Sequence to fold (561 residues):
Amino acid sequence: MRFRTEPKKFDRLINKKELLYLKRGRLIPSAISAAKRAEQARKCKFLVYLSVMLLLPFLILSVALIYNSTLFMEKLGIIREEISVPNSEQNTYLIRLRFLSSSIRNSHDHILLYLELDRWDLLESEMVTMEGLKEARRGELQKLKESVIRNGGENTSRWILLQQLETQIAKMNEDCNIFLAHVDSIKKGSKKEDSVTIKLAEDLSYRQNKILNVVSAFLLYNQKELEESSALVDVLKVKSLYWAYFILALGSIMLIVVITSINHTVSKSLENIKCPPKK
Amino acid sequence: MPSKKVALVIGLILFALMPLWYWGIVPKLTGLPSDFSYNAVVFSRDNFYLPEKSDFTGEQVSNTNYGYEVMEIQDGVLIIKNRFEVQEFNGKTIFKAERLYGINPRTHQHVYGYGDQDREGYLFAPPHLRKGQDFVYWHVNYDRPAKMVFQGEEMISGLNVYRYETDYQADQTEELQAFLRDQEKTGINVDINLQLWVEPVTGRMIKYEDRATAYFYNTSSGERTHPWNKFQNRFDEVSILKQVELAKQEKFKRLLLRETITGLLALAGAVLILYPSFINRK
Fold:
């Protein structure tokens, strides 16, 4: 085995044919193919380098543009979640509150009428209806409060409006209780005093108007906020668009720099290639 | 060789362009545009005084319209209308004022001889405010110069702002004629606490808050008889967010045009001037 391998090793280094090439002052064919392969590998590497360098600006550009649009979409989502959705939710509660308040006012008017007509049967049922309406209004107010707390909480304009609404409703409930107690006393046999009844009815009407004013203020405020949020979306749109232009401009500059640098590298490598000496 | 000369010449041109760009073109590009406008939702609360009960009626929310817009341009000065109207929900006007300011678009300064009266100070604040720098501001509601005193730095939605505050007095007799029974003998003056939040690079107002108490006074003696109204105004949260975004945009524009492009001009000029000597040494 040793006898066989050793000449082989020697053959690999140089054989007679190759010695002949060398003696004639020419390159060994296998060496030529190795040099060609090395040259091809070098070219290949260079091409890979060129491709990476050219692709890099596009890659960075795409990532930046995607990030920019994601940011915009994220902000839109926040606006929708924190302004538009709570706004419409609160508007629903406010409209119900306004309806219930108007119904309570109507109920007061009915009670006054039945009191005038001495229709105690109808008056009693109306009083029950009014209690039900007041209970429903309390429920709607609670839902509104929960929505306001969930979306911003204290120290916001909505919180101030809610507090005003709560105060007015509480005051009206107090006035209403006094009115009902007065009606109850008449029912139990007390003397019907028109002046007291009228004064209480006036107070209730005044409170009712106050509640309606606060509800209107709340609704108008929500409407204005909704318009302002749409203006904010426009501002964000313009901003996102400007950023996109800016990214494109930066990308173009980067591409020009890369192409110039590649051009420089190629020119340099072309300069380095020397022509073979003439015979 | 000629290419080296060309590089040197271009480099020198770029250097010569730098001051022209910085002091000539940038202020034009970063100044207030000819279609400038500023709108915000103002949340107002009024608490009127009832002399019969010697007490305030309780706070009520009012409907306020507030904004700025350019009406015309006179000799490069922007004539900006600032409106402020407060109404009750029954449509009754509580306060209404419209002022015309003559504003230099580059410095945001009031210009003498323009607008409905001569004013000193700024529309909002001067751009490139230094920390601790005070300035004079005219608020539409009071139409008097307010010396805004620096209070500190704050962050609003990721934007660095300076907070300013002042306490002063103003006379609103002219605007509140409808509330005066005897217009010759009585007037209305106001004690004001005004706060401004300003973005220092752009000088843009991000929000304001004022609390004031207005009093009836005797015009001959100057003595106050009784309060008229305790009121306060402030920006809505969404309006603040909008102003923050606008200020961020404007700040970036200023940074890009003023610092970045000027820096790039200087860098390119230096490279081109030094390029021939670098080649020669090689």
Summary: The two ends of chain A are 48 Å apart (CA to CA).
